Amino acid sequence: VAMWIAVTLLCCSALARAAASCPSQCSCAFHSPAEGTKARTVLCNDPEMTLPPVNIPVDTTKLRIEKTAIRRVPGEAFHLLHNLEYLWMPYNSLASLSGITLKGLRRLQELRLDGNNLISFPWESLAGMPQLRLLDLHNNELTSVPADAARYVKNITYLDLSSNKLMTLPQALIATWANLQAVPYFPNDNSKIILGLQDNPWVCDCSLYEMVHFLNFQSPNIAFIEPRLKCFTPRSLAGVFFSQVELRKCQSPVVHTSVAKVKTILGSTVLLRCGTTGVPIPELSWRRADGAQLNGTVHQEISSDGMSWSILGLPVVSYLDSGEYICKAKNFLGATEAFISLIITDSESTDDPNSAKGAWNGKASGMEAAAYNDKLVARYVITTSTVPTLGSGAGTGDGLLLPDMAQDSNPQNLLVSPTPGQEPERMVRSVRVIGDSDQSITLAWKAPMAKNTTVFSVLYAIFGERDMRRINVEPGKTKVTVYGLLPKTKYIVCVCVKGLIPRKEQCIIFSTDEVASAGGTQKLINVVVISVACVIAVPLTLVVCCGALKRRCKKCFVRKPKEIQESYVTFESLSPGAKAKGVEGEYLTRHTPDESNRLLSARSSVDSEAIPKIEGQPNEYFC
């Protein structure tokens, strides 16, 4: 009896100590994860609880705090729980979580924080949890994931970020997943790493390019809770699956300017043009280098090739408008600037006094930029005195580009300003395309004032490009064929006397697809005309040939009787006196064909004997 009383007292004492160590608002339980071991589980689910309990047993391996009113967790709440392996805090009211709170949990394997109001997560705290395999952040208010998170998720094989407010993911994180070779968390899944990304307001632009590519061409060791992700914005792609969108890769802005220096006379109108490329399309803005206010208007436009242009118009320029103008292109990847110098002079000559007159300074003129459309050609040619960047070609259009020709020592390769005596020669007129395929064209022009020794130059470039290529035409020729063009591409081409600057009327814009279409139409017309001509001409030719053959055959059949008939000759009696009635008819009927042949021969004594004697003067006969 005494022994049983002692055992009972010891058991009651142990139960009392165990009950005293468990928090009052929580329940404790023991389980055996392995034979001969015990693990403590603490469950706290009081809906009125606002802070985590402070007296959690240190031997706790699994802590569940669920469906409470806890909004924050003090930094020292879990510091003594060095054996904690599972921390589940789903569906509370957590708005923030500090990295200090998770410090020291080196044995932690699962961290579930789903169903809270977290707007951020301390990703750097994962570095102190090397055994963590599961991280559940489902159904929170996360708006972004930092790029540094890629350094800390390499060991996580189950990550749920679904039902948050994520619009994009960093490229570094996508690259980490694509190359991830971690051990799967679930024993029954031998090859998959599980990701949950669905139900987020994804913005389908270039920033999502890597992610879309990752989902469409995913690694075989990656599995998604829901693989059919959808775009949320822009509106044109709302609800479209990732597998159905085509996105462009993000690109930093690049600025293109048609000229680097503009010289113009006082009181003229100047247009400064600046273009940019980039993904997304950069925003263009103008400002002056000296900080002065812009005295003009800005017009924005987008060309057919996707390039964004900004045109700064300066009407009636004065000396105050001289200076450096800065064009800035900016998108979220960065910004780029370009400078254009505007010089105002008081005379019509805009030559640079510091350089030799007429020498080309190697800068691009507005000629190739102005010819983007007919309205701007004249403006740029008139307001600038510099010349285009040229490349030399050999008649094939494949010449090398020479961006800076100012150092060229060959005088024939330099463009000079025209003199009054050269003005008629430079007036190339009626430039037109007369042929022929989608990879070559034939140009023709008129130059009535040109001499047989005049050499023409053909300058051409792809529509929108700055650098132009040059073809020198043989003296006296006004037609040339340009080869090596791209199909279905718009080009600008100018024809001028070699060494001079082309004018507006000497430039045209054409498209190789239009040329090919026109050539095909002309060939179709030729085929139709030839077919109609054959239909009409062949039967007519047959009729004429048959008629000629018929007449030929008829002539052959009736030739002999006709010869006999033509042997007879009609004789008439010509005499000054009266002729006996009926004598002539009687005479002709009396003669045979042989006698008529004799009458045609020279007169002889036989003829005299055959002539009858009639009263009066004798008659004479003529054939």
Automatic annotation (TrEMBL):
Q: Where is this chain's protein located in or outside the cell? A: Cell projection, Dendrite; Endomembrane system; Endoplasmic reticulum membrane
Q: Where is the Fibronectin type-III domain?
A: 427-515
**How is this protein annotated for GO cellular component?**
dendrite; endoplasmic reticulum membrane
Which protein are we looking at? Answer: LRIT1 protein
Signal peptide coordinates: 1-18
Regions that span the bilayer: 524-549
Q: Does the keyword Endoplasmic reticulum apply?
A: yes
From the UniProt record, list the coiled-coil ranges. none
Q: Which SUPFAM superfamilies match?
A: Fibronectin type III, Immunoglobulin, L domain-like
What InterPro entries does the database record attribute to this sequence? Cys-rich_flank_reg_C (IPR000483), FN3_dom (IPR003961), FN3_sf (IPR036116), Ig-like_dom (IPR007110), Ig-like_dom_sf (IPR036179), Ig-like_fold (IPR013783), Ig_I-set (IPR013098), Ig_sub (IPR003599)
Q: Which residues form the Ig-like domain?
A: 253-345
Q: Name one Pfam family in it.
A: fn3
This protein's membrane topology, according to the annotation, is: Single-pass type I membrane protein; Single-pass membrane protein
Keywords in alphabetical order: Cell projection, Disulfide bond, Endoplasmic reticulum, Glycoprotein, Immunoglobulin domain, Leucine-rich repeat, Membrane, Repeat, Sensory transduction, Signal, Transmembrane, Transmembrane helix, Vision
Q: Which SMART domains match?
A: IG, IGc2, LRR_TYP, LRRCT, LRRNT
A single Gene Ontology biological process assigned to it is:
visual perception
The family database entries (Gene3D superfamilies) matched by this protein are listed as:
Immunoglobulins (2.60.40.10), Ribonuclease Inhibitor (3.80.10.10)
